[in-house]
Amino acid sequence: MREIRLVSRPTGFPIASNFELVPSAGLELVPGTALVENLWLSVDPYMRQMMDGLWSLGAPGEGRALGRVVQSLTPAYEVGTIVFHTQGWRTHSVVTPETSRRIDLAPGVPLSAHLGILGGTGLSAYTGLKRILQLQPGETLFISAAAGGVGTAAARIARLLGAGRIVGSTGSAVKAKWLESEVGVDVALNYREGSLVDQLAAAAPDGIDAYLDNVGGEHLAAAIDVLKPGGRIAWCGAVSTYNGDGVVAPHNLFEVVEKELRLEGFLVRNNLDLRPELIEFLTPQLQSGAVVSDETVVAGFEQTVDAFLAMLRGENTGKMLVQLG
Amino acid sequence: MREIRLVSRPTGFPIASNFELVPSAGLELVPGTALVENLWLSVDPYMRQMMDGLWSLGAPGEGRALGRVVQSLTPAYEVGTIVFHTQGWRTHSVVTPETSRRIDLAPGVPLSAHLGILGGTGLSAYTGLKRILQLQPGETLFISAAAGGVGTAAARIARLLGAGRIVGSTGSAVKAKWLESEVGVDVALNYREGSLVDQLAAAAPDGIDAYLDNVGGEHLAAAIDVLKPGGRIAWCGAVSTYNGDGVVAPHNLFEVVEKELRLEGFLVRNNLDLRPELIEFLTPQLQSGAVVSDETVVAGFEQTVDAFLAMLRGENTGKMLVQLG
């Protein structure tokens, strides 16, 4: 039983020595709790922000995880129950029915999808597209970080919702090609190659109707430039700035007035009521193979920090996950 | 018959020599048109932007105006008809029924109100409060440039809509006092005196629900800081930046994500469908005296440029108008 602790706060981009892999502490099973052996851990961009303050030094990181109950002192869970919880960054966690949730596995749906397109990642995409952007059939959608977890889920869900044209940005030619051939993105841009705003304008000559942003900075500015009058932006992250470089606020923000744009932020944790709808919507699509949960899987608990850093560098395609055991 | 032409483009703050008062040219009455003697001219912040490009050099400025038909070659208007049109900055204008609109004067409602709280100014306030912010009874509202035309109209309309607490900002202690004693603003801040964000937080200790912004810059940043989670911003201008100084984009824009804010721009010219509703809503309030159209009136066509410059300096309370004749 091991855990990974944050032992120093990153300055800029995190480094391996900000973390320490140590034997677990404080895993006390008391009545009403269950011991969970973790099977899958999620590493996500928002964790970089938590490391600046919300995560305690000397304590294990927190994160979404899936595991199997191996000991139970609660009538809610029998041994073998699969649960979701948010005490990741450790091989074993003690949970209560209040701090965890039973996963009902549908036939033909892989467990890991519950950390991917059916999990918080997919729910971020679904909330942005459905509740905030209210994407309409035939519309042109732009997705930043399109090859990442939220980005791939958004591209696949947007197609199911009838998007007319999907433009995605990513940081390499290989990922751009993959987005077009595998994920169904109509035009994938490599933002490291030439002007982003020029590429975006060429990819959407009539302008974009809606933008799902988890990058901020230059991407947000380019989208504001290319949005049609009355366009909408659903904003859920600014990964371009989490390591202290880059500027969130776009120079052309006043186009929000001139083009009557709507810029609206959202947090997936305040939109959990949409989860049953998402699972009902996607389960048959996953079962038929019409949709997959795009994932990059790293094997072994001791690889968690490496997986997190690789995700920050954009080395994953789809959701970055750590498989344990 | 005279007109005021833009003869050079302002660099920064406009000066009197950017303009020239000359005899009218091109006032040709042809079938289908009418000659209007203007009675009231409006001077507005947006005109500063027009002077950077949209207004032609050597041509008269454009702007909202009210006048009386003195000659008519159209069956739509008889001599004496009062019309609204957008060919201001001149003593006389030639209009068509398509480029103008008959004003139906209600008893007890002053004509000038049709350039004030019943005109584009009031419609900006109403659109922002009703359509964009969807202000709910009991909510706390912040209004920037509260002593100006849109600001005073917004404060009075918000009170009718049931706003719980109205906080307004202005640039002098005298105007702040006037806002509280005459306009019904609950707390008026002088942004030139101390920290704006600290004053705003003190005036709205539970946070603000909604913000009507026609200033941008530091005001927008302060509002973002003090808005409650889920708060809304209706953005219709950035007068703090029209003269080339100041920055539109707030440093704390990412709070839009962290607090799930909605920032939405609007242009009054795309919301003219709300005008009948506004006039129906306000006419009985104006007739009973429950609401007034706050105005600063400058007399004499030759004072138009002075009135415009004084408005840019914030010397008016309520809508700045020029009365002719």
Distance between the termini of chain A: 11 Å
CATH architecture of the largest domain in chain A: 3-Layer(aba) Sandwich
- The number of helical elements of chain A comes to 9
In total, how many beta strands of chain A?
A: 16
* Most extensive protein-chain contact, per-chain counts: A-B, 26 and 26 residues
Mean pLDDT of chain A: 95
Radius of gyration of chain A over all CA atoms, rounded: 20 Å
State the name of the first-level CATH class of the largest domain in chain A.
Answer: Alpha Beta
What is the structural class of chain A?
Answer: alpha/beta
Strand-residue fraction of chain A? 25-35%
Q: What order do the SSEs of chain A take from the amino end to the carboxyl end, as H and E?
A: EEEHEEEEEHEHEHEHEHEHEHEHE
Low confidence ranges of chain A: none
